[in-house]
User: Fold Mitochondrial thiamine pyrophosphate carrier 1 from Coniella lustricola.
Amino acid sequence: MATQAIKAPSDLPVAPAQPPSIPATDSFRLFVSQPVVAAFCGGGVAGAVSRTVVSPLERLKILFQIQSVGREEYKLSVGKALKKMWQEEGWRGFMRGNGTNCVRIVPYSAVQFGSYNFYKRHFFETTPGADLGPLMRLTCGGIAGITSVVCTYPLDIVRTRLSIQTASFADLGSRPKGGKMPGMWATMVGMYKTEGGFLALYRGIIPTVAGVAPYVGLNFMVYEHVRKTLTPEGDKNPSAVRKLLAGAISGAVAQTCTYPFDVLRRRFQINTMSGMGYKYKSIGDAMTRIVAQEGLKGLYKGIVPNLLKVAPSMASSWLSFEMTRDFLISVGPKEVVL
Assistant:
């Protein structure tokens, strides 16, 4: 009886080697530690932290901005205006619109920081990690600012409406019987149905973009310059206190230079609301009428509470951004075998 030869182990077919799989946890850590992703997440955290810290001053700034001649219930000092807000609306008055603001600012800030990092790495750096000049930082930041505004503008205009609808402007007449005010989605749906559809949610975007682009560009440019200046020789990073100082300086410079655009943005966002005393036809018409009726200082209404809030706001924003970004980058797997 014929017998078949038994193959030696070395003669058996060998299956092709499979690359070792990456554990799911390592894949996630690798994803979130990518510079653009880490910047995106860090920007979201930075936005939520910074806006919540200064919510009362943010709302007061808006109330100052939207007042016109004859409707100046909040023509008060910052301290007295905050007291009036507290007496009439309590703690909720301080936080009015902050929920919507955080819903808006988390994606807004995330897109802003993430897109700045993306544009910087892929379009502006000649070599990876190269230092950008001031003009390139300004341009890159401006484009990032436009990107973030276009993505999140409807939430910004709704936040403005929510911020003013409970304030005691005599002619506003928006408080319904029973005292319950519409929320974020009800306000957005109402604007869509009664004020011109989708375009109503982007009313005022032109002066917004005109102000945000230079503001964000200046913010990034000044912060990175001041941060570098404050970094001790031989160190890679300044201390947390120095980062806070750099953020405060960058915010103050950027806000002061671009503040009139912010006033115009707020005015146009409520331009169709009854009882506010103005109906502007264009940016030129708005600026002409504001200066004629309210003087040049009309373009800077609300700048005092704005500057009071910008230091803690931008300082906490930049610090929380860098801490979150650096943490996410650090959690990346040290070595991934592909």
Summary: Residues 24-330 form a domain with the Mitochondrial carrier fold fold (CATH 1.50.40.10).
